[in-house]
Amino acid sequence: MDHLFYSLESVVPLFVLILIGYLLRRRHIINDSFIQVGTTLGFKLALPVLLFQQISNADFTQAFNPKLILFSLSATLTSILLLCLLIPRFIKENARRGAMIQGIYRGNFAILGVPLAINMFGETGAAPTSLLLPFTIPLYNALAVIILTVFSPDRDATHKISLKALIKDIVANPLIIGIALGLPFSIFHWKLPALVTKSLSQIASLTTPLSLICLGGQFTFQAARKNFALSCLATAIKLVVIPAIVLTLAILLGFRNGELGAIFILFMAPSAVSGYIMAKNMHSDDQLAAQILIMTTLVSCFTLFGGIFLLRTFHLL
Question: Quick check: 110 and 54 in contact, CB under 8 A?
């Protein structure tokens, strides 16, 4: 039950922020202009600063485990490739394709990962989860830029993709810039002055509350009904189908305890808040992205608890 309570403690505050945004919009305290400016601020400033902090503070050499890294990245890339091949077969609108694919593969690992691992295994046992952060965060964000660019609503099925334009979009993306700036600090163990670090921390702390209040502000039950079937499908694939396949393979390959826990959290985490921010700012279907975020966050309370219970019952964690 402890893990169920921890899962609830992790996600309930997210719903409170969404509810606050919804109520503020209904009371006309915030409007469309605020939501547009807020999500743009999150995309171009707060989220890049958060990623810079996460990458610059990560230690690539900590408890280095090439088998764990290779398996996690291979499973992530394989699932994304399959999604890119399958989703366009039954979803015709490019904007929905990008939002659906990103909503399924991109988990809230950066925010939920280490705290949940510490809760499950203690500070020492959380090392494998911490190890995956500097590898998964750049991969998630780089691929999100590519996917949302390829499946842009401005590009129809016959429009040829320009490799030069695609590379330009990736390089100019604020999230990629934040990650790129953070990498030298991580690799060479550079440190910024405390004054700068505190200022960056305050900016980074805007990311989640600002984004979720904006999400709540644009939430409508009409859009929720419209996207209900797709968000249910995305939730089932994200929290049940893919984790079941990946964890079965991980167990067969001999991963146990903290290593298996890192894989479990990576693939069982609900959709990332940053996915909604990117969908909103890259002209994807941000309503669908919002619904997937809300539904996966709600359902993850129970899938995380159920998964931990099963793995511990069979003495795998």
Answer: yes
Residue 121: partners with Cβ closer than 8 Å, 6 or more residues away: 257, 258, 261
Interval 187-229: pLDDT, tens: 888 999 999 999 999 999 898 889 889 888 888 877 778 889 9
Q: Where are the alpha helices (DSSP H) in 27-126?
A: 32-41, 47-57, 66-90, 94-105, 109-125
Distance CA 115, CA 107 (A): 15
pLDDT band at 10 (very low <50, low <70, confident <90, very high): low
Cβ of 9: how many Cβ atoms within 10 Å?
Answer: 12
Give whole-number Cα distances, 44 to 28, 118, 180, 200, in Å: 26, 31, 15, 14
Instruction: Tell me the mean pLDDT in the region 275-294.
Output: 90
SS3 at position 162: coil
Beta bridge partners, 107, equal 271
Residues in the chain: 317
Query: 100-122, pLDDT tens digit by residue?
Result: 999 999 988 877 776 677 777 77
Angle between helices 286-313 and 257-268 (to 10 degrees): 150
| Number of alpha carbons in the 13 Å side-chain half-sphere of residue 90 | 9
Tell me how crowded residue 6 is: count the other CB atoms within 10 A of its CB.
18
- Residue 308's contacts (CB-CB under 8 Å, 6 or more residues apart) are 3, 120, 264, 317
Q: Name the residue among 270, 221, 218, 214 with its Cα closest to residue 243.
A: 270
The residue whose two tokens read 């600002």 is: 210
Q: Please give the structure tokens belonging to residue 82.
A: 């399959």
SS3 315: coil
pTM flag (> 0.90): no
The C-alpha atoms of residue 290 and residue 216 are separated, in whole angstroms, by 9
